């Protein structure tokens, strides 16, 4: 992954967008520290689908006995990330 300081990223923003659309993630730093990563919408959506929901993580911990007595069973409803709550 190529890294650009913020001032270079700002000056060549359309170039970074082109790289992201070509499938290359681009990191932008601010004050020498990692700040953001630019990826294509397609890659972002693919990563979101593979990430477990908070409810799934809590339910998994409850099944493993890690949360004994700390929560009661609740019927979590799975929702993809980034969608509006009804």
CATH class of one domain: Alpha Beta
Radius of gyration, taken over Cα atoms and rounded to an integer in Å: 19 Å
Share of residues in helices: 40-55%
Reported by name, the CATH topology of one domain is YefM-like fold
Q: What is the mean predicted local confidence, pLDDT?
A: 82
The description of the largest β-sheet is:
3 strands, mixed
Q: Count of helices? A: 4
- Structural category: alpha+beta
CATH architectural label of one domain: 3-Layer(aba) Sandwich
Order of helices and strands: EHHEEHH
In terms of DSSP E residues, the strand content is 15-25%
- Name the CATH superfamily assignment of one domain: YefM-like domain
| Outline | elongated
What topology, given as strand order, has the largest sheet? 1-2-3
pLDDT below 50 for ≥5 consecutive residues: which ranges? none
What's the N-to-C terminus distance?
Answer: 37 Å
Describe the model.
- The chain has 86 residues and is of the alpha+beta class.
- It has a domain at 2-39: 3-Layer(aba) Sandwich (YefM-like fold).
- The protein is 42% helix and 17% strand.
- The two termini are 37 Å apart.
């Amino acid at each position: 992954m190529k890294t650009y300081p913020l001032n270079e990223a700002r000056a060549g923003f359309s170039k970074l967008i082109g790289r992201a659309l070509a499938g290359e993630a681009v990191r932008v730093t601010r004050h020498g520290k990692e700040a953001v990563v630019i990826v294509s919408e397609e890659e972002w959506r693919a990563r979101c689908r593979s990430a477990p929901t908070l409810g799934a993580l809590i339910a998994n911990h409850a099944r493993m006995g890690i949360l004994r007595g700390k929560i009661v069973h609740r019927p979590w409803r799975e929702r993809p990330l980034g969608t509006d709550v009804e």
